[in-house]
Amino acid sequence: MSPVFPMLTVLSMFYYMCLRRRARTATRGEMNSRRALESNTRALPINVEIVQYAKEVLDFSSHYGSENSMSYTMWNLAGIPNVYPSSGDFTQTAVFRTYGTWWDHCPSARLPFKRTPSTFCSQDYVELAFEEPVYPTAVHILETYHPGAVVRILACSANPYSQNPPAEVRWEILWSEAPAKVNGPQARQFTPCIKQINFPTNLIRLEVNSSLLDYYTELDAVVLHGVKERPMLSLKTSMIDMNDIDEDEDDEKYGCGMDALNKQFSVVTLREWPTNGYFDKLPYELIQLILSHLTVPDLCRLAQTCKLLYQHCCDPLQYIHLSLQPYWARINDASLEYLQSRCTLIQWLNLSWTGNRGAISVSGFSRFLKVCGSELVRLELSCGHFLNETCLEVITELCPNLQELNLSSCDKIPPQAFNHIAKVGSLKRLILYRTKVEQTALLSILNFCSELQHLSLGSCVMIEDYDLIASMMGAKCKKLRSLDLWRCKNITENGIAELASGCQLLEELDLGWCPTLQSSTGCFTNLARKLPNLQKLFLTANRSVCDTDIEELAANCTRLRQLDILGTRMVSPASLRKLLESCKDLSLLDVSFCSQIDNRVVLELNANFPNVFIKKSFTQ
C-alpha cells in the first residue's frame, strides 16, 4: 500500500477529533449548532458593530471617593470620558481605595489564605452595565493615571435590565493576565485581545490588582464594541485553533472554569485498583502535607483517582483554611452543600465576592454554618450581597468562637441587622467599610466587644456623631491597635482627645478626608504625644496640618512607617527633614498637592533618604 494512505488516515482522524471537540464545546466555543457546520459554504451575514460607553455602575468593591460625592468614585466610569486623553490626578475619574503593597505592611494587614491559585490575583472589581447586549469584539479601557492595574475582564450572561432573571448566570473570562509593571503614569487606551463568547452581554466586570503601582490607578471610561448577531466562523476561512483542545485546562488556569466543580465535590464512583501505588508506603501525615499544596479543584479531581486519595482529599484537616473567593463565579448553594462534610473543622473561611445574583441563598448559607460554623475563627464576606439580617443572626448564633468578621462593602445589609454583631464578644477584628451600620448598633458593638484590636469604619455614612463613637472606643476598646475612620464627616478634636487617651496601644490610624479636624485645636499634636506606638498615620486632604504637627510626630512617634499628608499647604521642607531624620523606619511619605513641597524638594529628599518612597502627585 502506498505510504500516502496511512498519512491521510491519520490526518482525517485528527480533523474528525477537532470537529468533534468543537461540537462538544459548542456551548462555549465558536459554533452554534450543526447548521453552522452544514452551512460553512454560505456567505456570512454582515454585522454592524455597536460602540457604547457604560450606562451604569452596578457594583464595586471599593473606591477612594465618598459615598455622597462623585470625586474619585467608581460612578465616574459611567458615560463618556471626562479626562482622557489627558494624564494626571483628576477627581472626575474612578479610583480604588489602595495601591502598592503598603497596606500589606501595616498593623491591620491580614494573613493571606493558603491554597489560593497563583492565577487569581484580583484585589478589587467594578461591574458595568451597557445599554445593548452584544457579542463583544473589543473592550477599550481609558486609563488616565498610573495604568496597568486591570488583570481580568469578564462578561456575564445576565441582562441587568431584564424583567425576567435567568435561571442560570454564567460568567466568561474575556481576557486575563498577571499584573505587569507599566513604565510611566501617562494616560493610555488599553485594548487587550479578548476571547469570543457564545452569548450576548451588556454586563462587563473589570478586576484589578494595584500591587505593582507607584500610586492610585485612575480609570476614566470603558468602551464596549460588539455585534448583535453571533459571529460565525467559516471553516474554509479559518484554521482550527490548537488551543481549543486544551480549553478546559485554560479555564481552570484562569480560575473561573468551575462548571464541573459541583460534580467534583460530590461523591463519585471510584475505580477498583489492586494497589494504591507507593502512596500506601507513605505516612498519613506526609500525604496530608503534600496535598495541602493543592488548590480546591485539584483536591476534588485527585479524590476521584483511588480510595486512598479520596480519603485524604476529603479529610476535614485539609479544609481548616478555605478560600472560595477565587471561584466566586461558580459558587452556589450546591457547592456549599457538597463541601459541608469536609468543612466540619474549618477555622478560616473566605466567601468574599460569592453568592451574588441569587447564587447563594439565605437558607443555603445558614445550612452550611449550622454544620461548619462551630470552629470558625475568621469569616470573610466582603461584597456578599446575599447577606441580610437573618444571615448576621445565624453568624452570631452558630459561630461562638468568631474573632474576625469582614463585611466590607456589604451595602445591602439593613442598618438594624448590625445589632446582632454585639453578641460576638470574642471579636478582635471587625471591618464595616462602606456598610450602613448606624450609631446605636455600633455603640452596642463597642460596648460588648471589648477585645477588638482592629476596627474599620471607613465611609460609614449613617453614623451621626463620631465624637460619641470615639468616646466609647476610648472607654471600652483599650486593646485597639488599628482604626480606620476614612471619610468620617463629623469627628472633632473632642473625639480625638477621648480616643488618644483611652486607646494608647494604637499603631495605625486613618483620619483621611475628615474635614472637621483642625490643627489649630491641637488635635494632631495631642495624637502625637499620646500615641507613641503609631506606625501608620493618614491625614489625607487635611489642609490645616502644619510644621508643628510634623515636628511633634518627629519627636514622639519615632516608629512611624507610613505618613500621608496629601493636600496640606502648611508643611515646609525643613519640618519634613526633621521627620525623616527622626523616623528611621519611615517607608512611605505622601506629599501630593502640598503647595510648599515642589518637585525640586522631593528630588532632594529622595537623594538624602533613599529608603523612603516620597510621593508627589501632579495634574496637567
UniProtKB/TrEMBL annotation:
One of its GO terms (biological process) is SCF-dependent proteasomal ubiquitin-dependent protein catabolic process. The keyword Transcription does not apply. GO terms for cellular component: SCF ubiquitin ligase complex. It holds the Pfam family DUF7885. Gene3D superfamilies: 1.20.1280.50, Ribonuclease Inhibitor (3.80.10.10). Residues 276-331 form the F-box domain. PROSITE patterns: FBOX (PS50181). Keywords: Leucine-rich repeat, Ubl conjugation pathway. PANTHER family: PARTNER OF PAIRED, ISOFORM B-RELATED (PTHR13318). This is FBXL4 protein. It comes from Eudromia elegans.
